[in-house]
User: Which sequence fits this backbone?
């Protein structure tokens, strides 16, 4: 638990790096949220929990949702406010939501549910959601059908384990059953083409590297730069992801 908390708070010192280099989500994700929830996001009351720097909050806001972001970390919250001054943000976490009972049409956790204690976060989510409201959990997960990404992921796992830390982020599959809720699951593939430097900066913004230390992280990224430069001589990398989505109606 101590390492889990250390990793959860490690993003605060790297919030600008996180905001600049992490992947976003495809439009089909928002379409699927609306389909499964049976209502549009436009004018819906959405609480985005563990909002981080606001990657998901901004997409939901642009779709017309009335978004309130909830973020526990000081550094992430500061970056959120710089990037999204038009979206209200309150400090808090998924285990103790600073939100009124039955106040939300959607509760969204983008890359965030695995930082909660599901035994506490589940009842809190149900309290804040209105009857019939939607709880949506999702992660960008590396698509291992791209063999170079599968090989890189294996190298990452081996490297961080040799340092005695927990495995690198894999998408955070802490699926926890919540009494009274039935989840529907969807998989949504997407890609992005980015400079190799952006790809490596994205990797180094993962919590396993943030707690590993600058010297050890630089060592791994230097090796990866050499490997990937041979695979992508034009300096452009195509990252493949699959958004793993779970949605349940309250």
Assistant:
């Amino acid at each position: 638990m101590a390492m889990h908390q250390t990793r959860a708070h490690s993003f605060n010192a790297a919030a600008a790096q996180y905001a600049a280099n992490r992947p976003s989500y495809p439009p089909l994700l928002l379409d699927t949220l609306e389909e499964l929830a049976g209502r549009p996001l436009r004018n819906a009351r959405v609480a985005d929990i563990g909002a981080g720097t606001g990657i998901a909050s901004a997409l939901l806001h642009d779709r017309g949702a009335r978004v309130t972001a909830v973020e526990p970390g000081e550094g992430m919250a500061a970056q959120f406010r710089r990037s999204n001054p038009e979206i209200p943000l309150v400090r808090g976490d998924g285990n103790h939501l600073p939100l009124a009972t039955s106040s939300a049409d959607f509760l969204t956790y983008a890359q965030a549910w695995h930082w909660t204690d599901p035994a506490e976060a589940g009842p809190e989510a149900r309290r804040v959601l209105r009857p019939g409201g939607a709880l949506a959990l999702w992660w960008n997960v590396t698509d291992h059908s791209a063999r170079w990404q599968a090989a890189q992921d294996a190298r990452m796992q081996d490297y961080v384990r040799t340092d005695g830390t927990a495995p690198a982020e894999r998408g955070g599959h802490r699926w926890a059953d919540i009494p009274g809720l039935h989840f529907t699951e969807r998989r949504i593939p997407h890609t992005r083409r980015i400079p190799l430097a952006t790809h490596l900066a994205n990797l180094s913004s993962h919590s396993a590297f943030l707690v590993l230390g600058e010297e050890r992280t630089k060592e791994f990224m230097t090796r990866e730069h050499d490997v990937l430069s041979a695979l992508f001589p034009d300096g452009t990398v195509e990252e493949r992801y699959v958004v793993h989505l779970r949605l349940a109606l309250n």
